[in-house]
Amino acid sequence: MSRKGNPYDNALMEFFYKTIKRELINDANFTSINQAQLEIFKYIETYYNTKRLHSALSYQSLKDFEKQHP
């Protein structure tokens, strides 16, 4: 990632990283890299994409938003 204000800045991914750290990683106690990878995958596939409401999408989950806008 680049410095703040750089045209190559990726604010969306930085926001996602902040969210996943706050909601999953900060309170977790992983015993291995494989366990961390599995928990992150499960978080994204079973919660973030399907259940977590996003204010930018009128408080819909990503999955529901994609169903309405194919």
Verbal overview:
The protein has helices at 11-25, 33-48, 62-68. It has a domain at 32-70. With 70 residues, it is mainly alpha-helical. The model has no long low-confidence stretch (mean pLDDT 87).
- Tell me the structural class: mainly alpha
Mean pLDDT: 87
Shape: flat
Query: Ranges with pLDDT <50 over ≥5 residues?
Result: none
Distance between the termini: 30 Å
Our count of helices gives 3
Structural Rg: 14 Å
What proportion strand? Answer: under 5%
How helix-rich are the residues, as a percent range?
A: 40-55%
The biggest sheet amounts to: none
Strand segment count: 0
| Element order: H for helix, E for strand | HHH
Topology of this structure?
Layout: H1 11-25, H2 33-48, H3 62-68
Short characterization:
This is Integrase catalytic domain-containing protein. The protein has about 70 residues and is mainly alpha-helical.
